[in-house]
Amino acid sequence: MKNVNTLGRIFYALPFGIFGINHFIMQDFYIGQLTSFIPGGGFTVLLTGFCMIVACISIISKKYIALTSFSLAFLLFIFIVTIHIPNLINQKDVEVTMIALLKDVSLMGGSLMIAGLSMENKL
Length: 123
Description:
By secondary structure, the chain is an all-alpha fold. It has helices at about 1-25, 25-35, 40-60, 65-90, 95-120. The chain has one domain (about 1-120). It is built from 5 helices and no strands.
């Protein structure tokens, strides 16, 4: 069972590393996704990309998993509230926005599960 938990943890973390790298490579795309009340523009995109890369490394290396996973869940919650919900309200690419919203809700749930398991020392 321990091997399954390890694989799950690694497979969960890897996409965040890729998402984080994408924030640096495709910065203009992500800036276009920001709503008008998110400050910082390009800096915010790079900061969130950096946070996702750090989260990936932390979860894979089993260092500060609970703190990282709770922080990642909070970051995903911010994405949901500040990007996806306003885009749904403004009818901006409703189908694509709904998929992104559901993806981030699922990832947030997974992050909370990993945080809980790590606090119970089951990872």
